[in-house]
Each structure stands twice: as structure tokens, then as C-alpha cells.
Amino acid sequence: MTAPRIAPILATGFALLSGWAQLSATGSAARDYERVVTRFNTTAPPAYRAFRRLEAGSPDKNKTGWLEAWTEFRPGQPLKVEIVGEGGSEYVRSKILRGMLDSEQQLVANGKPLRAAVDEKNYQLADGGTTDDGLQRVMLKAARKSEGIVNGTLFLEPEAGYVTRIEGRLVKSPSFWVHDVDVTWKFARIGGHVLPIEVSSRGKVRMYGRSMFKMIYDYVSIDGRPTGARLNAALHDGQ
Description:
11-stranded antiparallel sheet
């Protein structure tokens, strides 16, 4: 697999970094848009330790790779990464997956945001009603064509008051090589915070076929407190 054809997958995955969401939603979504957006854009991530599994590649060409790592973050300090397992395509592992983690470390070190803000500059919001399983649906329409912005949907858990999922199609392709990129961010309430638990994308690479990326988080501690036994992380914790 040549660099021009596979390198855009890094940009695709990088655009998916979701940041952190501690969002509140009570009453109608229309009344709470301002509060939801404000908290989404201003809440800082807590200190955490998490086991991550990353996967990426082009399934059509049987060129995929995976990587597993421990990550540890404390406000004001560098993001620590310890890779504990990997397999599959060497190029995908070294250039795509390690590149993803390296880029995240650089952003954290430089105090840069990991996501595009959900604000009037980037989005128009509209009430999308309620899903069959009781989630509040908020429609996201891109206000401009920029990296990391999607046309899609944000889902709120109205009773607990947090975002459970954001999904949509990137309005700006990460590069000439990648197009039609669909992304999904999933969240859960853990240790009193609403945190990303999965980030994924599927797109098309010109002259090469489908591309995919997925990163799963398995938190073992938040703010220095254990979250409870998590099977995947426990199996890989060498400490």
C-alpha cells in the first residue's frame, strides 16, 4: 500500500477525535441548545487512565492493522501513551495508528482543542424530535465547510441529561484522496463525567476502495478513582 493512498486515513481518524462532553439537557432541546452548546465547548477533560484499542485500514484490499495502548492524562501534563500490543499491516500500525496517538499527544502538549466546537460559527441546530428509544434528537447542519464539521445528528439522553452519540458526514474531506466520510462519536457517563467511549469512521479512498477507523476507550480510573472492573482493560494491565 503506497503512502499517498493510505496516509489520508490518518487525517480521517484524526478528524474524529471527539474531545469531551459534559452536557446537560432538561426540558425541550430547543430551550436547552444554548446551555448544551456552552457546556460542550467549555468542559475540560478529567484526569483519567484508559486502555484503548485502535483499528484502521482498507478492508477491500485486506490491509488493516490494530494497536492497543494504555493512555493516561492529567490536566496540565503531557498525555502518556504505552503501547502494549499490535498486529496486522506494519504501515497501518506505524503510520496511521501510532500517528494518531502521536498527533493527540502533540495537541494536548500545545493546549489545542481536539474537536470542532458546536457553536453558531460551525452549526445550525434544530429540534429533531424523539427517537423510538426515548432519546432527544438534535439536527446538526453545517454553517460552513471546515475540517471536523458534519451534517448529522446529536442524540441526548433527556432524563440523565447528557449526549450519548453524534453521527454524520464530514462536510470537508480530510484530503483529496478521501471522500464520503461518515463518522460516529459515542459517549457514556463514567465516574461522574460524560466521556467518549468509541470513535469510528468509514470513507472511500480514491483508486483504493473503502477505509475504516475505530478507537475504543476502556477507562479504569477517573480523577484518581477506580471506575470498577472493566474486563478488556484488566486483561491487558501488566501492573
